[in-house]
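User: Predict the structure for this protein chain, please.
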Amino acid sequence: MVDQLPLDAPEAPRPRFRTLNLLVGRMTTIKLTYWAALTAWELWGPRGWSLPFATAASLTAMAWAAWSARRVDARAGAIARSIPTVATAFVTASVVAAPASLPLLLVERQRSIEGCAGQLTCNPTALFLWVAVFAIGFLVIPAVFALALRRTSPA
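Assistant: Here is the predicted structure, written as structure tokens:
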């Protein structure tokens, strides 16, 4: 028996330029704010509160990403979930996450070698914190954004 699927199925609507521009702008704003807040805290915040602050900042960024993905813009409209929009969310995250996380890496590397005499590191916790927040910034926040996007309605 032959499949009952029509051969000339309508294509899903492609995202418009304004929609993708909106998506890139929202993801970039969330990610840069996330990295700036973490770096500022590590530089000027009280020692010993890095993990609680990183947890709070990560949860806030995830909530902001979910809210931002569902919000409707007056000019561009809503961002619908599709393969191009999800791919754009992750590409934007990777392009922004890597360079924006470097200042935090430098701070954490300095913290990891403070008080070391000839050792590679005395405080690996600082580097583990950077790896954890890098994974959250690189994978989790864009995933939350992508999952929160509105589903495209079948035609």
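The CA atoms of residues 104 and 137 lie 12 Å apart.
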